[in-house]
Amino acid sequence: MNHDAADSGIARLPIIDMTGLGEPTADARIAAELDDAFSRIGFAYFRNIGVAPELVETVFAQSRRFHGQSDEAKRRLTINGFHRGYMAPNTSQIVTSSVATVKRPNYSESLMLMNEVPPGDPRYGAPLMGPNQWPDELPGFREGVAAYDAAMAAFCQKLLRPMALALGMAPEAIAPFFAKPTTFLRLLHYPPQPPDADDETFGSAPHTDYGFLTVLVQDSAGGLEVRRRDGTWLPAPPVPGTWVVNVADMLSRWTNGRWMSTPHRVKNLSGGDRYSCPYFFDMDMDAVVECLPTCTGPDNPPRHPPVRYGDYLMERLDKNYAYRKPAA
After folding, report:
1. pLDDT of residue 203
2. DSSP state, 177?
3. Where would you tag: which of 162, 199, 242, 265 has the fewest CB atoms within 10 A of its CB?
4. CA distance 87 to 75
5. pLDDT over 60 at 96, yes or no
6. Which class is 3-324 in CATH?
7. pLDDT band at 5 (very low <50, low <70, confident <90, very high)
């Protein structure tokens, strides 16, 4: 198939049904559909991923509770050196974007939560290795959000099997890279963009994601768009009961470009508030990412040198987040 031609005509992201994930027959079917979607556009909707609707309702409810607080209350959890906490509007700017010259910070706010690394863990104190910041004044917040986070982690671990199969590898081939995964759950709030906002105002400016895989649940407001190969933008509106899933930079690098890390952006033109909860599932910070053996050959040499995931990640965080930059 000529993927360039096929991609230009894509009218909607494909939907992949995860029913039976973990069973050999279903994993083989899912693997084939993953390879097709990730090769053609790098994005798909997933349905029936095994996460209870009640958990989704809870994480959105808790996000609205958090963002409905006063500015003072939210800023008590201002993001720290472990990259956990509250990011106020206009404090992240995607200067590392390879797809756009981003002229101003994102018009959004968020609470960033990561894999918990408590004091006493051997990793504690290393870059990004620390505990989350929780809003103690919101009873039930931590429990509700942590339950969703755990469900997403369990799903992503199961997904590693058909992903390996899709790449012509043994089912367990990539699982060791995720024995201690690096995860991010971001509770995002996009205020309505002002009616007089110019074309350079984005809730999230055009970018690709840094890591392995992003699994996004979004509310009904819409605003997410995915860039086709021909440069046009494809809306990825909410589809009830689905998550939007995309290949990120490390996975594309691992597959030598076989799977696309596709630019995407958000403009909240709904006239109301927009909430989304992206879950970023990445490899261990110490994992070395180099071209997978099934994704290279005499006529297709590796396009990138090996890189330690943690080094790659820290470089991007240091450039894109205001709190990590030295004071002027």
Report:
1. 80
2. G
3. 199
4. 8
5. no
6. mainly beta
7. very low
